[in-house]
Amino acid sequence: MGAKITLKDLAKILNVSVSTVSKALNDNPEISVETRTKIKELAESYRYVPNNIAQSLKSKSTKTIGVVIPAILLEFFCKVLYGIEKEATARGYKIIICLSNELQQKESESIDTFINGSVDGIILSLAEETQKTKNYSHFYKSMNYHLPMVMFDRVSDEIQCDKVTVDDFHGAHKATKFLYETGCRNIVFVNPIPTISVGQERESGYLEALEELQISPMILNVENYSTIERELSEFLSTNKVDAILAADEYSAVLALNVARLNGYKIPDEISVIGFTNGLMAEHSIPSLTVVSQHAEQIGRESVKALLDRIQGQTTETAHHVVETTIIHRNSTKKLV
Amino acid sequence: MGAKITLKDLAKILNVSVSTVSKALNDNPEISVETRTKIKELAESYRYVPNNIAQSLKSKSTKTIGVVIPAILLEFFCKVLYGIEKEATARGYKIIICLSNELQQKESESIDTFINGSVDGIILSLAEETQKTKNYSHFYKSMNYHLPMVMFDRVSDEIQCDKVTVDDFHGAHKATKFLYETGCRNIVFVNPIPTISVGQERESGYLEALEELQISPMILNVENYSTIERELSEFLSTNKVDAILAADEYSAVLALNVARLNGYKIPDEISVIGFTNGLMAEHSIPSLTVVSQHAEQIGRESVKALLDRIQGQTTETAHHVVETTIIHRNSTKKLV
DNA sequence: GTGAAAGCGCTAACAT
DNA sequence: ATGTTAGCGCTTTCAC
Predict the structure, then answer these.
(1) DSSP code at position A140
(2) Which stretch of DSSP H or E encloses residue A325?
(3) HSE value, Cβ hemisphere, 13 Å, CA-based, for B58
(4) Which end of chain A has less neighbouring CB within 10 Å, N or C?
(5) Cβ(B82)–Cβ(B113) under 8 Å?
(6) DSSP class per residue in A189-224
(7) Which residue in B153, B9, B11 sits closest to B68, CA to CA?
């Protein structure tokens, strides 16, 4: 940072005290209109900008939100981020971003970065590793510092804080029922993320819907994306399937392609629904019916919840739920 | 922020001075090993964390980089961001993100956010509106503050600062030549971004390649994505075309679909190459051959350039160029 | 080896 | 209406 002009400098130039300058620039009526304008003009001419760091130190408020997301190359998190930025900016807050890259270690480091006073609160979504190991010690640490925190999408019951989640349970439930209503009876649930909370919620919703419909479930958990195509292909050849519900976007697109390449007519012979309304789903062939999580809104809600807490307008920790919507495209049959 | 423990608190507890505590925690040999360990243990037990704001004020360095990108929902910028975050974190820097949403006003506001001492430097890519209007006054403002700045991808000659760009010119040049080498002779350049620098560079590369090959160019500038399909469809029906070079990813995917839906065999009758190696290109049908800009590396290079300047290791402003690579997929013919 | 004091840039209660 | 002073939390020079 170059040598920037300070209040002190301005004060010296005009032979007044620093506090006079400060008050004048803050339009304090204690100062005469005359001096106020004089000082403001000088400040203007020197392009004076108050030092934000000093203001933060003084006010004990940084007007900054720390955001920790597991990945930025997943479109869903980008969209949430978009919502966060929009809402934060609208409310006069800046955002600092840390990526955990799905690792617990990096998540913990990110929190360390934030508990030193550089932010007024944290918005976070759990790393996959953290959800697997269920080791939340780094959060207890941060909670000792009383730094307000909001968790979104990937959350844990073991951490007490405000939460914003998608209604994944009902999303899967609705999607399953919808498949049923379009005539599907053999619905397989393909789940590449059985270890993270959202994957589990979606499974539960699927199971409950089938239970209600008195249909026996078929679940295909897959370790990673590279094996989905082979495993699903095998599954299709040994099981009667007329619909696939995939727990995320990529697995849905892969499932769609596997079914299509295996000669099934889509949606007539096999219908496919995925989670997450992203580019891949929109541009797949045929275009994919998805359960949209309204990512942007999740971001906005998270900011709202956090700022409400920072501004002390809330007491009990709240759990906000964003409803899902089915976006109907060409991988599913129309309702009759 | 809750009432956190400070140096002062620790000092009071141990009946020593603040400076002793500060020195002890910073392992200053002036302090006896005995007191040092005693103080450290106390600090540990109280989970003391130094206040970063105070440190920044004192040291006049925030260890933070401000990043301004035009859009976060464009995969390219996400990838750059990924590279920025990775490199910054590795070097001990945090990043604050502002989105200009392609608007000059928001770009200017973002810069205002940064010239108040909250960051040590700025990494920025120009908003489309700014590139259209060529009004760079908000940058002159920031340059007065001597805040180091690196511009990437969308840059302007009129602003003197370090730059990191993709070699869009040669990228288009290489792609055009490649199309020629696979037998194409009627190559149309579809450009939805003729107003921004990268779109212009790509056009120039295309034109130069055709000039060298003594082939007359065909350029189809389009106002926005919604009309590409209609305009290109019309173009194909009135012109002989055996290859399409599209100036960005989305237009390439649309072009691919238009050609395919109009009955052309891809790549045999029409080859398609796009810019940007993203999800859409990878998952289009057929998969799309693209000019990859190595977005992540652009991010990393930008951080390197910025930190070099912050640490005063550079004098002249430098222009770093990241080479492109053609990713060969199924929308182009193989070389014989 | 430890402490006092000054100062980073700002704000605000309290004089004058 | 203006100035003095203290203090945010930290580092660092200079005394002791």
Answers:
(1) H
(2) strand A325-327
(3) 6
(4) C
(5) no
(6) EEES-TTSHHHHHHHHHHHHHHHHHT---EEEE-S-
(7) B153
Set of chain A residues whose Cβ sits within 8 Å of the Cβ of B144: 47
Q: What CA dihedral angle connects A210, A238, A251 and B277, to 10 degrees?
A: -160
Q: Which residues from A are below 8 Å from B146, CB to CB?
A: 1-2
- Please report where in the chains the tokens 């990713």 appear, as a residue: B327
A162 - beta bridge partners?
A150
Contact (CB, 8 A) for A179 and A243: yes
Q: d(Cα A204, Cα A189) in Å, to the nearest integer?
A: 11
Between chains, do B145 and A99 touch, taking CB under 8 Å as contact?
no
Average the pLDDT over A50-71 and give the result: 96
Q: Is A149 helix (H, G, I), strand (E, B) or coil?
A: strand
Query: CB distance B1–A52 less than 8 Å?
Result: no
Name the E strands within chain B. Answer: 64-69, 94-99, 121-124, 149-152, 162-166, 187-191, 218-221, 243-246, 271-275, 289-292, 319-322, 325-327
pLDDT reported for residue B156? 94
| Interface subset of A 43-82, CB within 8 angstroms of B | 47, 49-54, 56-57, 60-62, 64, 72-73, 75, 78-79, 81-82
Q: Are strands A64-69 and B162-166 parallel, antiparallel or unpaired?
A: unpaired
Question: Which of helix, strand or coil describes residue B32?
Answer: coil
Burial of A268 (0-12, 13-18, 19+ CB in 10 A): exposed
Residue A90, C-beta contacts closer than 8 angstroms, at least 6 positions apart: none
Verdict on whether the full-model pTM lies above 0.70? yes
Residue A2 has pLDDT above 80, yes or no: no
Report how far Cα B84 is from the mean position of its chain's Cα atoms.
8
Q: How is residue A236 written in tokens?
A: 């299709």
Q: Are B69 and B82 in contact (CB under 8 A)?
A: no
Rounded distance in angstroms from the CA atom of residue A147 to the C1' atom of nucleotide C14: 33
Q: For A94-141, write each residue's pLDDT tens digit.
A: 999 999 999 999 999 999 999 999 999 999 999 999 999 999 999 987
Per 3-state DSSP, chain A is made up of helix, strand and coil in percentages (nearest 5) of 45, 15, 35
Inform me whether the C-beta atom of residue A292 falls under 8 Å from chain B C-beta atoms: no
Region of residue A111 (phi > 0: left; psi between -120 and 50: alpha; otherwise: beta): alpha
- Tokens coding A223: 């370790």
- Give how far A215 is from chain B: nearest CA, Å: 34
Residue in A283, A306, A309, A310 to test binding to B, most B beta-carbons within 10 Å: A283
CA of B58 to C1' of C7 (A): 8
Supply the pLDDT for residue A3: 66
Dihedral pair phi/psi, residue B145, rounded to 5°:
-90, 0
B3-32 residues labelled b (16+ CB within 10 A) or e (exposed)? ebbbbebbbeebebeeebbbbbbeeeeebe
Positive/negative CA dihedral, A133, B90, A51, B148: negative
Coil, helix or strand at residue B291: strand
